[in-house]
## 1
Amino acid sequence: MIVYDAHCHLEAVRQINSPRPLAVAAVNLQDIIKLDKYRQQNNLAKIGIGIHPWFIDPEVELINYQQQLIAIIETYQPDFIGECGLDYNKPHFEYQQLLCELHCKLAQHYQLPIIFHCVRAYNQLLQIIARYPTLKGMLHGFNSNSEMARQLTKKNISLGIGSLVTNPNTQIYKSVAKLPLEFILVESDSPFMPMTGQEYSTPDDCLTYATAIANQQQKTQQEITCRVNANWIKLFS
Ligand SMILES: [Zn+2]
């Protein structure tokens, strides 16, 4: 049984041409052409468009980004917005917040799910999300406690769980037993988030993560897989 990957990148999936559910995120606006081509090869793939906080160009004005995003959304009809978000470890944090808000505004306007990247900025993200009450989406690479999970899921933001759940030193490893199953998705963030000791990740690693979640939640791996796949369909369809 395949675990549907809720977050991965083109570099990891280009060779996967047979139909298979994968949510493939952009990191910049140029990605859309390759993503659109990929969706034609794999008609079960969902593709997103967004500007990852690591790839923000502070020279580009917000209004320019807005015009480009709208043009892409209307031309290519992506299945979701993302990835976008906040990373406190990276420069231009103020501009990151403006751009993150722009993505939320467009996701709400076009009624598309949104995929967030968030590092050391959960509270700032919650403040932005609060202004967009009909938003739905997922915070990828969720790595926090069950109280933060409660605050996010209350706002219809699901929790993307990946390789960190296999590492006993992470927050997600410690909190996953208490997280609500109806808001959990599994993701590889491939090829960029390998398990400790591996060089890169692939969508097939999602099975290992589903097993790790199952062990902690005291469920079978099949139960978790059915659940997260249903959550995937609900979020992206
Ligand atoms: Zn990613």
## 2
Amino acid sequence: MAAPDPCPPAAPRQRRWRVVGISGVSSGGKTTLARRLLSALPTTAAYLSQDQYLLPDTHPGHPPAPPPLSGLNKDTLRSVDVAKMEADVRRFLAEDSPALEPEDAPFLAERKAFVGSALAAPNPFVGRLREASGLPPVLILEGFLLFGCSFFPTACDLRFFLTLTKEQCRARRSRRAFTASAMGGGEYFEACVWPAYESYLREVAAGVKGVQFLDGADPPDALFQKVYGNVVELLRSAEEAEGATS
Ligand SMILES: Nc1ncnc2c1ncn2[C@@H]1O[C@H](COP(=O)(O)OP(=O)(O)OP(=O)(O)O)[C@@H](O)[C@H]1O
Ligand SMILES: [Mg+2]
């Protein structure tokens, strides 16, 4: 019988996923920034948007829009399936090698579909493998009310929040297509979008630690470089710390 190998090859070291949260004002550039980060990061990365957890219109959880508006107010957390998103993220982070193709993870595959989104374009889960980088993998979470319940800011290693003035936000929204045409209107903006955002901004500024506020009217490249630089710095310091202890 052959002698046992005195030095069997070490099992590949599992790296803890670093989590980057991007939240902020409607049309502030959250999705643009998150998707650019996903394609540029020199490591394995995945992207999950809160947009995919908006409840379907038929769900009784949505509050009505205030009179004289008819229809639903989809701009509060009551319209988001927060518990499902939290469960999905916990499950993803708990796995040694989480599935990066939604087809391999039924709980994420559901999120490829158009669930209850307010925007007329789905924003599905995306994962991308880059094994050779040596850097920890990154999960990018993005959503208009992402920091509104305690799990997500706690789970994030970095937290970014995009702001716009009321006029800038109104102007950007006026150029976009929504699933319910009333949601693109000026009355809905005044009665639902802006009050919900102001209240959320106050809550985050007062209660969520370590948030970096960014002006969403800055040029896209400047915003991207700032966020990208912060994320890469986090990954490199994680790599150094892990190298020092291994
Ligand atoms: N820094 C920027 N400067 C100018 N326009 C921008 C900038 N970032 C994004 N935009 C534009 O603003 C619009 C909204 O961008 P995006 O969809 O990324 O915002 P969002 O915060 O994800 O919006 P929502 O809350 O509706 O999901 C898009 O037309 C996008 O091209
Ligand atoms: Mg978006």
